[in-house]
Amino acid sequence: MIQRILLFILAFSGWLATAQAQEKPVAPPADSAAQQAAAKKPAPVLPDSIYRVPGGLRLGIDLSRFVVKAFQPYRTDVSFAADYRYRKDLYIAAEAGWQGVSHSDSNYTYKSSGVFLTAGVDYNFLKKQETRERYMFYGGIRYGFAQMSYEAPSYTIYDSYWGDKLPGSFPKRNASAHWVELILGIKAEVLKNFFVGWSIREKIKISGPKDDAFPPIVIPGFGSGTKGSQFDFQYTISYCIPLGDVKVRVKRK
Amino acid sequence: MNNTRVSRNIAQRLLLIINYSLLIIMVAMVGCDDETKVCDQALTTDTHIRFLRDSAGITRDTTMTQVTLYALTIKDSIYRKQAVSNIFLPLSPVADSSRFYLKVDSISTPDTLTFRYSREPHFISPGCGFSTFFTLDTVISTTNTIRSLIINQRAITSSINDTAHITLYFGI
């Protein structure tokens, strides 16, 4: 398990490193004719062009969780999202939240509570923007972790032959889960420093609760307690705290 | 220059429209996801027993003409004088052993089947709740009419499969 996480972090940091390396201009191959021309008439060396794009820390709340509550009344989710502009197109992003589940019907009662945290990056695909504009069409990746406890305080098994109702209970137990999220979304600045955005995401479970006899119904931040992967979405409103500008350096040709 | 700016503004306006309209689509997507509302799985965990007749080394499926089956402690019939080739028998979910009376036709001597097993409550699904799963330890029968028996599968769960857990061999 730990090995898988480490391997993933390693592979991901490797990808980041190559992505950054690619931004650096590659030295043109030595061309004898060009070299001779340069020797005759030295070209003036122009300094790099530098411009600034607005940076900041964006803090938001996921409104879609309240919509979920309307359709799955047993679930109560509160989820916050944050991202920080690290480079012109690269954002360090994280989400954190809490989930409580309370369900009761004629078959059983169920209770759970837990927290989750995800961390990763978003990459903005929108290139042609004015420097002060902050629209985003982005792809992202997250690593997610959840810690929870759950129980079935009472259940009833109906048996028509041996007796009508057989009561029982499952005591409280702890569980944790790890997963990876792949994200695609947009963000738009609707008022100064206020953003509205949505994203769709596929969550792929790496490890989860081991108990086959009684798995949790929902895992905080992930979703279904028994599925290996889960499709989900987010709809956030957020406020961006301006924290200075991010310098963008462009080499002169 | 002017042209690119116009097209860019259209793109951004589009982005905003998509942004607002998506909440409605998302609402529709979650709409069909309350897992606690529907139970679409079987909850019964009965032991499936298959009858085979063994005559002169040839075994074949056989239908018994008047099968009567009940638990010795309950005495309510699960089968009463029915012509069947397979029986489904509920083990007791409150004890670690169950005994059953089995008479397969009007003239044969009845037999007693004794089951010893362990049991475990199992969460079937958010919609269905819990059921009891069994693991067979030993199954013993008297040999009045039954010649022998074989345990094919020890785990008795809610999953439906065609293989019988137990095969009963008759010599008549």
Helix/strand/pairing category of chain A: alpha+beta
- Average pLDDT of chain A, to the nearest integer? 84
Number of domains of chain A: 1
Strands of the largest sheet of chain B, in order across it? Answer: 4-3-6-7-8-10
User: What is the percentage of strand-forming residues of chain B?
Assistant: over 45%
Q: What is the CA-atom radius of gyration of chain A, in angstroms?
A: 25 Å
Structural class of chain B: alpha+beta
Order of helices and strands of chain A: HHEHEEEEEEEEE
Q: Give the distance, in angstroms, between the N- and C-terminal Cα atoms of chain B.
A: 97 Å
* Uncertain parts of chain B: none
Tally the helices of chain B. 1
Strand order of the largest sheet of chain A: 1-2-3-4-5-6-7-10
Percent of residues in β-strands of chain A = over 45%
Average residue-wise pLDDT of chain B: 83
Molecular shape of chain A:
elongated
**General form of chain B:** elongated
SS summary, helix count of chain A: 3
Most extensive interface: A-B, 42 and 39 residues
Low-confidence residue ranges of chain A: 1-26
Radius of gyration of chain B: 28 Å
Summarize the structure.
The complex is a heterodimer of chains A (253) and B (172). Chain A has 253 residues and is of the alpha+beta class. Helix content of chain A is 15%, strand content 59%.
Structure overview:
The complex is a heterodimer of chains A (253) and B (172). Chain A has 253 residues and is an alpha+beta fold. Chain A has a single domain (50-250), classed as Porin (Beta Barrel), CATH 2.40.160.20. Chain A is built from 3 helices and 10 strands; from the N terminus they run H-H-E-H-E-E-E-E-E-E-E-E-E. Chain A has helices at 2-23, 32-40, 64-71, and strands spanning 49-62, 75-85, 90-104, 108-124, 136-159, 163-191, 194-207, 218-219, 223-224, 229-250. An 8-stranded antiparallel barrel of chain A has the order 1-2-3-4-5-6-7-10. Chain A is elongated, with a radius of gyration of 25 Å. With 172 residues, chain B is of the alpha+beta class. Chain B folds into 2 domains: 1-33; 47-170, no CATH class. Chain B has a 6-stranded antiparallel beta sheet with strand order 4-3-6-7-8-10, with no helix packed on it. In chain B, strands 1, 2, 5, 9 and 11 form a 5-stranded mixed beta sheet that branches. The interface between A and B is large, with 42 and 39 residues.
